[in-house]
Amino acid sequence: MLQWALIFFIVSLIAGAFGFRSVGSAAAGIAKILFFLFLILFVVMLVMGLLGG
Hints:
This protein is 92% helix and 0% strand. It is mainly alpha-helical and 53 residues long. It has one domain (2-52). Helix 1 (2-18) packs antiparallel against helix 2.
């Protein structure tokens, strides 16, 4: 999932460089959502691993 966030981040950088601001901002928004979702899942799995082990 973090890979998808990085892919959308790169797409947003490329789109921003070529002047496609709407595409760039949409890809950046998706990258942010995926990154925070990955971060939340990481913290939940970390807590579950500490409590279950």
